[in-house]
Write a structure and sequence with these properties.
Zincin-like, four-stranded mixed sheet, 5 helices
Length: 238
Amino acid sequence: MKSVLIFKYGSESLEYHLVLEERKTIAATVFPSSELLVKAPVDATVEGIEAFLARKFGWVLKQKRYFSGFKQSTHKQYLSGETFRYRGRSYKLLLHGNCDTGRVSLQHGVLNVFLEGEKTSESARRLVEKWYTESAARVFPERVRVCSALFGLDEPPVVVQRKMNRRWGSYSKKHNRVTLNRELIKVATRFIDYVVVHELCHVFVEKHNTVFYSLLESKLPDWKQLKTELELYMLGGN
């Protein structure tokens, strides 16, 4: 069960997403988007959750301020010399203006962006985003096919991509569809596979319970380390 709630603490109000699941303790996570996710046991009371948030209120505000400043410091201007990530490697952006066709290519650690017109940040942004999207459209289905073999799935789920603020992926049993965060095209294959395997576990187990995590560990024994590394990697900027 998931819901969006408001916690009032003095004159302050805190919006949070609440997920009730099979667990013993209450936990809070602040995402780079500044969204707050609270996970609690299925039998947790509103009073207990709010008491937890009251204790964590200062920490939550500190995390939100940190991510707010972080996002400002890592905002891309799409200028030559900036660093961009692709498939786990970093590349320096180099803009080329007044070219015959608009395209993107990788060569010797350089992300070359060839623009038909002048070298503007906006035109570079559009072309780079298009390139990321097209790359993800090639890479993601292949990784889903590879990972589906671990589960003996004859027909891999449909794969779609989109921007997601606080999730790496999701699975729809109704449509047999895996949705992946487009940002994953920036990380190494092992992290993409971790997210894919996690979502494929939902083909067999809907909720995040002990059965789910046992299945995940059987397919990917180092999933906890991958999860931590992925979160730290993405916090390093994009």
